[in-house]
Design goal:
homodimer; 566 residues; FAD/NAD(P)-binding domain; Enolase-like, domain 1; five-stranded parallel β-sheet; binds flavin-adenine dinucleotide; binds coenzyme A; binds calcium ion
Chain lengths: 566, 566
Amino acid sequence: MKERKRIVVIGGSAAGPKAAARAKRLDPDAEVTIIQKAPEMSMASCGYPYYVGGVFDNRNALLSTPYGEVRDPHFFVHTKGVKARTLTEAVSIDREGRTVRCRDLHSGDLDDVPYDKLILATGARPRKPPIPGVDLVGVTTLQSMKDADFLRRIRDDKSITKAVVIGGGLIGIETCEALQLSGIDITVIEMLPQILMFLDWELAKILENHVRSNAANVITDVKVAGFVGENGQLTGVKLENGTELPCHLAVLAIGVIPNTDLARDAGLDIGQTGGIAVDDFMQTSDPHIYAVGDCVELVHRITGKKTRAPFGDLANLEGRVAGENAVLGNQVTFPGTLHTGICKVFDFSAGSTGLSELRARQEGYENVVTVINASLDKPEFMGAKLLISKMVVDGNTGKILGVQCVGPGDVAKQIATAAMALHGKLTVADVVNADLPYAPPFSLPIDHFIATAHLMENKLKGRLKSMSPIELKKNLDAGKDPFILDVRTPDEFEAVRIGIGETLIPIGELRHRFEDLPEDRDREIVCFCKISLRGYEAALVLESAGWRNVKVLEGGVMAWPFGREK
Amino acid sequence: MKERKRIVVIGGSAAGPKAAARAKRLDPDAEVTIIQKAPEMSMASCGYPYYVGGVFDNRNALLSTPYGEVRDPHFFVHTKGVKARTLTEAVSIDREGRTVRCRDLHSGDLDDVPYDKLILATGARPRKPPIPGVDLVGVTTLQSMKDADFLRRIRDDKSITKAVVIGGGLIGIETCEALQLSGIDITVIEMLPQILMFLDWELAKILENHVRSNAANVITDVKVAGFVGENGQLTGVKLENGTELPCHLAVLAIGVIPNTDLARDAGLDIGQTGGIAVDDFMQTSDPHIYAVGDCVELVHRITGKKTRAPFGDLANLEGRVAGENAVLGNQVTFPGTLHTGICKVFDFSAGSTGLSELRARQEGYENVVTVINASLDKPEFMGAKLLISKMVVDGNTGKILGVQCVGPGDVAKQIATAAMALHGKLTVADVVNADLPYAPPFSLPIDHFIATAHLMENKLKGRLKSMSPIELKKNLDAGKDPFILDVRTPDEFEAVRIGIGETLIPIGELRHRFEDLPEDRDREIVCFCKISLRGYEAALVLESAGWRNVKVLEGGVMAWPFGREK
Ligand SMILES: Cc1cc2nc3c(=O)[nH]c(=O)nc-3n(C[C@H](O)[C@H](O)[C@H](O)COP(=O)(O)OP(=O)(O)OC[C@H]3O[C@@H](n4cnc5c(N)ncnc54)[C@H](O)[C@@H]3O)c2cc1C
Ligand SMILES: Cc1cc2nc3c(=O)[nH]c(=O)nc-3n(C[C@H](O)[C@H](O)[C@H](O)COP(=O)(O)OP(=O)(O)OC[C@H]3O[C@@H](n4cnc5c(N)ncnc54)[C@H](O)[C@@H]3O)c2cc1C
Ligand SMILES: CC(C)(COP(=O)(O)OP(=O)(O)OC[C@H]1O[C@@H](n2cnc3c(N)ncnc32)[C@H](O)[C@@H]1OP(=O)(O)O)[C@@H](O)C(=O)NCCC(=O)NCCS
Ligand SMILES: CC(C)(COP(=O)(O)OP(=O)(O)OC[C@H]1O[C@@H](n2cnc3c(N)ncnc32)[C@H](O)[C@@H]1OP(=O)(O)O)[C@@H](O)C(=O)NCCC(=O)NCCS
Ligand SMILES: [Ca+2]
Ligand SMILES: [Ca+2]
C-alpha cells in the first residue's frame, strides 16, 4: 500500500477549507487536516453585513450548507473526509522537519503536526491605525464571527443611536448600510477624496450621493485623529480637522493586512505588495508549501504585475487550485485577478472589473480613452432602472481595460458580462455586435453593455466628441463659458435640472431654432439630455449645421455627480 | 456642393429605423426615407406579450422613447432627421433605375422613390399552416400592433375563457403566459417532443412542468389537424390524434417566414435557409442594396454556417451596421449570431447561447461532452433561487459550444456571461478560474457559471463520471437495475423524492455504511442529492472504497425532468 499523503492546511475560513476538500476529493487516500484558530470554521464572512443588518436572523446560516448542515469539524470529517481542528493556532513551521507547531487555544498545549504538503490560508486581518483610543470599548471591526455577533447584538439591543464607520471601501459601505438598517445614525469617514476606490471619482460620487440620500452622512478628505472615551468606553471620534463626532460605536474598515507572520518567520518569500509570494501554481518559495487566499499576492491579469486581491470568490478558486496541486503535483495554474468586485449600497449597486481610469493612468497606459454611458437596464414599460457605466480602453489597441457600473439597475449582469469580455481580451470592436440574451424583462434590445461599447466606438472613431462631467465642471470653475444646451423636453426640464446656465431647446425643435444658438461658430457648445443620447444627436445636428466646437456631456443629467439646481 | 445621398429603407419596425437613424447620423447630408407598410412604426414588438398580459396598460409605451415621445413620422423627421412614410407599401424594386415603387395604402396611389442605396428591412411574418379553418375569426397570431390590440381587447373584455396556443417556441410560450395572466384557460400544442427548441429536451421539460404547474396545459408530440367553427367563428381546435379542444381563441406561433418577396422579385440572391443572402457588410447580391433583420440569413459564429436568427437585438445591431455601410461605403462588418436568447416563463426564465447538445451533434461535432449543473444563484440566506444549466463542449478542444440555463434564478446573468465567453472563444480551462463580481446579494462565492465549468472540467478529466437524467431513465425503462443512492438528509427525503427505487444514505453517514451498499463491486451505482454536489462527493467516496462502476446523476432531484414520487 502506498504511503498516505499528509496535507496540512492552516486557516479554516474560505480558501483553506476549499483547498482541503479539493485535495481530499482528488486523493481520497490523503490525510487532510485543517488547523483553524477561530472557534468557527468555513464562515461566509461576506455575509456578516447582512446578518448584522437583519436581512436574516439565523446566525447558523453563515456557517451552513444550503441544506442546513453546520460546517463544523464533525461535518468536515463525515462529509468531506477532512480532519479539522478549531481553536488551534499554528505558531511556527519547521520546514526542515516538515511539521507545523500548533497550540490548542483551550489547554495551551503544543503539538507538532507533520506534513508532506502544507497550504497556508491564514487570510488577512483588519488594518488598525496607530492612533489614540483605538482600544476603547466600542471601537471594532467587522472581520470575524465575534465582530458580527457584537454588532448584531447592538442592533438587537437598540442601545446605540450614533456610530461612525471609518473607511469608505466595500466593507465600510456595507457596514454603513447594515448599521443604518439597524436604525443607527451613521457617519462614514474617508481619508481619500472619494469612497469605493475601485470606482473612478465621478461614479463614486454618485454612490456617495445615494448613501447620503439614505440618511447616512459621508465625510471624505479627512483623517481620523483619534478616539475619545470615558471609563474605557468610546464617546466620540476626533477628526484631524478638529471636528468631534459623538458616538458609542466606531467600526474600522480601512483595509486588511495579509497574515504573513508564519510564512515570514519560516523564511518564505514575501512579495512587494506585502502578500506571500506564490507562482501560478500557488506555490511559495518552498515547493512543499502552497499559499492561497487573502494572505497572498496575485498577478493582475491585465497589467501582469503583482497585486493583492482579498476577495472571497478568488479565495475559493485559489484554494481549489492549490488543493489539486498539493496532492497531484503541479497540475493547474491560477491565472490571477481582474479585481472584479461588486457591492450593494442601499438601493444601488456598484461594481467594477479591470482597471479604473485612475489605475490605467497609474499603470502607464499612454492613450487611455474613457466614456460614461447612462441608460435604463430594460424597457421603461417593464419597470426599468438606471445604470451608469464607465468603460476604460487602451486607445492604441482598442482593448477594453476596465468597466465600472453603478446605479439601481442590474449592475451584476453588466459587470459579469464585462469581466468575461476582459477574460477574452476583447476589444471594443469585438463587442459592439455581441449577441446577448435579449427579452424585455431582462434588457434593452441594445443592452447597456453594448450601448456603452457603441459610445466608445463612436468616441474612438471621432464621432462622439464628449467630455466627462469632471471636465465640464473644471472648465466652468476655471471661468470658461461654453454654451450649454439641454435638449430634453420642457417637462423634464421643469422636474430636474443641473443649473449651470444651460439653455433648453428640445431635440425635436433644434433643427428649426439655430437662431437661438451662438452666432460664433467656434464657441464651445456642450449638449446633454437625461442620459446624453439626445445630447449626442444634438451635437451631430449642430456640427452638420456648421458649429465647429460641439461637445457632448457624457451621461447627461443622470451621471452629473455634482450638486443640481433641482 | 456635393450631391445628397438618397438612402431608402423598406420596413419601419426595428432594423429599418435603426439603419435609417444611423445612416443619417453618420451622413447628416443624406436624405433618408423609411417606407413602412404598417400604420405604426418603431414598434417594440417584443413587448406585445407584456402589454397583452397586463404588465402595463399604456399602449403608447410600445411606441415611445423612455422620455415618453411617440416614435411616429413626426418624431422621426424632427428628432432623427429621417423622413418616414407609414401605411406605404413598397411593391417592387427597379434595380436598373434604382427606384422603389410604393403604394399609398390610403389612396392606392403609386409613386417611385429613387435611391442611391436601398436597405431592405422587411422582417418576417408568422407561418400559417395550410389546414382547414385557419381563416376563422378567433384564429390569430401575435406579430403586429393589430394582433396585440386584438388580444389585449380579449383580456379587457374578459369574453373568452379558453384558448389554444399553437407552437411552444419563445413567442408561443410568452403568449401562453400573457393569456394565462388574463385569466384564460390555456393549452399549448407543440408538434415536436418538446417546447422551446433552443433548449435540449431535459431542460425544456423542466420548463414545461413549470408551465403546467401554472395551470396552463401543454401537449407535445401532436399536430393540429384543423380549426372548427360556427358562423365563421372558431369553436375548437382539432388535433391529428382526434382530440378536439373547445376554444374561442387560437394563437398561431409556429415560427416566422422571412419576407423576401420584394427581394426575390428583384432578382436578389436568396439563401439556402430562406433568408435574403447578405455578406458580412449586410450587403445583398446587388451592391446598392443592403438587407437587415428578420428577412436575412446570418452566419452562425460557431459553426460558420448560414442560419436564420430573428431576434430584436440582432435586428438593431444589423441595422446599425448597414446604416453605416450604406452612407460611408463598406466600413464595418456584422460577425453573425450565437442564437443567444432568453424568455420569461411565469416565475422561471429560460435562456441559451451557442449550440444545444442536439444542434452540436447535428452539426457534426464528434466528441460532444455535456454536463448539467444545478445550484442556487446566491447564498441561501440572501433569498436564493435555483438555476439549472447545461454546458455543451467540444471534447477535442475543450471549447465551450453552448450554455443553456433555466429556473427561477438569475438566468439572464448566466447567459450573458456565457455568451461573452463564447464571443471570446474560451475553453473550459479559460473560465474555471474566472474573476466574476461576487457579493452575497448577487451570487455564490463560486458563481453558478463557474461551478458549471468546474463540473465540466471534472468530467473532461474523468473525475466526474456522470449520466444525464435522460440516460438514467432510459436505462431504467430498459430494465437495467443500477443501485440508486440518494445521499440527502432524511428530512429532505421525506419532503421530496424521485422514487425510482433509491436507497437513502446521507452523505455524512456514507463512510460508515458501506455494508448497506451492493456487495458486487461491479454493480452500477448511481448517486445523487438535491443538486448532485453531495452526489459527486459520494461517488468519489465509493470509488475510493473499491466500487468500480459509480456514476453521478447530473443535477440531482432538481434537474429530474420526469415525474417524481413526491
Ligand atoms: C465583512 C466582509 C465582507 C466581505 N464581502 C466580500 C464580498 O462581498 N465579496 C468578496 O469577494 N469578498 C468579500 N470579503 C472578503 C472575503 O471574505 C475574503 O476574501 C475571504 O474570506 C478570504 O478567505 P481566506 O480563507 O483567505 O481568509 P480569512 O477569511 O481571513 O480566513 C483566514 C482564517 O485563518 C485563520 N488563521 C489565521 N492565522 C492562523 C494561524 N496562525 N493558525 C490557525 N488559523 C489561522 C483565521 O482564524 C481565519 O479564520 C468580505 C470580507 C468581510 C470581512
Ligand atoms: C411577440 C413577439 C415577441 C418577441 N420577443 C422577442 C424577444 O424577447 N427577444 C428577441 O430578441 N426578439 C423577439 N422578437 C423578435 C423581434 O421582434 C424581431 O426580431 C424584430 O422585430 C425584427 O425586426 P425587423 O425590423 O427585422 O422586422 P419586423 O419587426 O418584422 O418589421 C418589418 C416591418 O417591415 C414592414 N414591411 C414589410 N414588408 C414591407 C413592404 N413591402 N413595404 C413596406 N413595409 C414593409 C412591416 O410593416 C414591418 O413593420 C419577438 C417578436 C414577437 C412578434
Ligand atoms: C464550502 C467549502 C468548505 C468548500 O468545500 P468544497 O467541498 O470544495 O466545495 P463544494 O461543497 O461547493 O463543492 C464540492 C464539489 O462538488 C462539485 N459540485 C458542485 N455542484 C455540483 C453539482 N451540481 N453536481 C456535481 N458536482 C458539483 C464542485 O465542483 C466541487 O468539486 P471540485 O471543487 O473538486 O470541482 C469552502 O468553500 C468554504 O468553507 N466556504 C465557506 C466560506 C466562504 O466561501 N467564504 C468566503 C466568501 S463569503
Ligand atoms: C429606436 C430606433 C429608432 C433606433 O434609433 P437610433 O437613433 O439608432 O437609436 P437610439 O435612439 O437608441 O440611439 C441613438 C444614438 O445614441 C447613442 N447613444 C445611446 N445612449 C447614449 C448616451 N448615453 N450617450 C451618448 N450617446 C448615446 C447610440 O449609440 C446611438 O448612436 P449609434 O447607433 O450611432 O452608435 C430603433 O432601434 C427602433 O425603432 N427601435 C424600436 C423597436 C425595436 O427595437 N424593436 C425590436 C425589439 S422589441
Ligand atoms: Ca471577484
Ligand atoms: Ca440575442
